[in-house]
Structure prediction request, 306 residues.
Amino acid sequence: MVKASKPFLFVTILCCAMTTVYAQHSFNLTNIPGMTKYQDSLVSLGDRVQNAENNTERFALNAQFIKTLVNALKTPSSAGFPFDSLKRISILPSPDKTFRIFSWSLPLDDGTYRFFGAIQMATKDGKLKLYPLIDGTENLKDPNAITSNKNWYGANYYEIVPVTSGGKTPYYVLIGWKGNSAKTSKKLIDVLSFEKGEPVFGKAIFDQKQNPGKNRMIFEYNKLNSMTITMEKSMNMIVFDHLAPFNPEMKGNFEYYASDLSFDGYKITGGKLKLVENVELKNAPNDKDEFYVDPKNKKIQPIKKL
Prediction:
């Protein structure tokens, strides 16, 4: 078992190391050897985290990973470095190049996950600011709550979609894998905006008759199945599998939910996401995070049929 003090240790590491860190904003990579060295260390640590035998070892190695990543992102030339050898974490640049999000998950012995991340953002004074993403899932009484980066509804993001209104981009849609437990997985569609220079997660932009007033959409389903959520640019729509129970008697028990092979979508219109049901697709969307069935079990094959 992991001692209760572990989560607080990581909050301290992230907050102290990242919230007040600034580096000169430069896309001129003058320190490629130094950044490559950091990347090699992160790759090695990531592999060791993945192969750790228990929570204690996993948390200790992840702490080293966090410190190394923070030091890398403090380097002046880090803004232009792609970190493209880091396969175990997600790095998403915003389409307008004003920030990028780093996110990753830590699998625990009981089948649950803890999430970590940071936002690296350019500021008006030509510097870079790092915001820690502190996973507050366990303490969130309402998963629909609007949160800050310090009580983040943690996820491993794999797609970012800008939502424009009046010629501006007031917020960004984040699509991610949430993990959950030994029996179910979750995916989500969250919303990121910046208010007074600070990141805010969640916003009531979902236009739908059922379950109105949502600040984020969370989907839960059987862990041995897969679910697609992806942006279809040709349709200007976020398309996703429609989830249903194996039979009506199992309604509400998400351990028995899977795709029924139909699709719904959120049409981006007027700065909102308008729900469209029973979307007809000529070709099924390509799931961009196919390895998110269960990162700990590569042998499991997604089951799409009910």
Q: What stands out?
A: The chain has a mean pLDDT of 85. Residues 1-135 form one domain. Residues 55-74 form the longest helix (20 residues). The radius of gyration is 19 Å.
